[in-house]
Amino acid sequence: xxxxxxxxxxxxxxxxxxxxDMSRAMARNVGKRALTDTAEILARGVRAxxxxxxxxxxxxxxxxxxxxxxxxxxxxxxVLEDIAGVQLxxxxxxxxxxxxxxxxxxxxxxxxxxxxxxxxxLEIDAAVIRKAKRVARGRS
Length: 140
Known about the structure:
Elements: H1 13-21, H2 24-50, H3 58-61, E1 63-67, E2 76-80, H4 83-90, H5 101-137
Antiparallel strand pairs: 1-2
């Protein structure tokens, strides 16, 4: 089994405090926005890996970023909705596996981390500004 890589982002103490001060819905929306843009980087990498293997274009077009079902917190996922994607990723008795997700993840990990590190504080600031404008208009 392959060793799982971890990435650690530092310097988010202030962002974490601001997220803690927000309402749960607002914090969830901020996280979803930052993660969606970051997941799009992975989706582009997956699409780039699929292109040489795809004849009809259906598999390429089925790669999408979608919200993930989760009880707590926020999650988004990159999905490959075409059934041929399973055969491409895992292989079968007639076709050798040609992974598209792992190479895309490995090659884009650093860029995804850096993008998230930039987007999260920007999204937090934008949410705080939107909240202040609503309060100034007299709505909470």
